[in-house]
Amino acid sequence: MGENRAAASGLFAGEDKLKRCIWCQASEAYRHYHDHEWGFPVIDETRLFEKICLEGFQAGLSWSTILHKRPAFREAFAGFDMERVARFGARDVQRLMENAGIVRHRGKIDSAINNAQRALELREQCGSLAAYLWRYEPERASRPRRITYEALRAMTTSPESVALSKDLKKRGWTFVGPTTMYALMQAMGLVNDHVDGCHARKQALAARAALQVPA
């Protein structure tokens, strides 16, 4: 009965009695990611670029797989330093294809390198990757929208993620579909999709209120 109620509410209580979004119940690593990263606003360019790349690598896989491999990805991709990744050549591609610690998908590897090059172009045009991405934050109402578990399960894209995807594709980016971009927006705090009652929801809202978005 308790499990049924948790599934209906979209929340579960851990040993610390804190209520969390039910999707992070699977592992301690998931719970740490949920509590400290997911939905909290980010303007650091390296973290934003990393997340775009990792969302691309996730296509067709679970986020649990990518989260487990994230340390290896960071080492393989020079800490996701855009300038360094943009200079990757054929030897780097071969090195990455031989690295069992990451997802060895040639198209996704090529995409990460391409997107680093496009990110540098975008930075010159828009000032920073953060300034560009945060233009697509949905207009914030005076009261935060309520998020139910049923609504969250149905949210895979938004008008803003569709617009972001379309513009990035025009700029030559790859693996940036609307669903992928909505996942980026959720993770980087452009939207706060922690379910109502989740202990991290208020913390993420407070972090957003304190954030000064770059113009």
UniProtKB/TrEMBL annotation:
SUPFAM superfamilies: DNA-glycosylase
GO biological process: base-excision repair
GO MF annotations in UniProt: DNA-3-methyladenine glycosylase activity; metal ion binding
Keywords tagged on the record: Metal-binding, Zinc
InterPro entries hit by this protein: Adenine_glyco, DNA-3mA_glycosylase, DNA_glycosylase
Ligand binding (Zn(2+)): 21, 34, 194, 198
Residue runs in coiled coils: none
Pfam families xrefs: Adenine_glyco
Designated name of the protein: DNA-3-methyladenine glycosylase I
